[in-house]
Please model this.
Amino acid sequence: MRVKCEGESSANQYSNGCRCADCREAWRVHGLEGAVKKRKGVRRDSPIPEHDAFTREQIMEARK
Ligand SMILES: [Zn+2]
Model:
């Protein structure tokens, strides 16, 4: 069964079954935004070097 958004492409239309390029793009962007929001809610902006840098500082402290 085909579903068409008929020019009103959106993530919602994609979830309703439309698979045109615009709806897929809207769905992809929608998913990215959700992922970013979730990530920011948990650990804000810098998930990578902060912990590592802190660990190195601790090692330097321990070597003094
Ligand atoms: Zn569509």
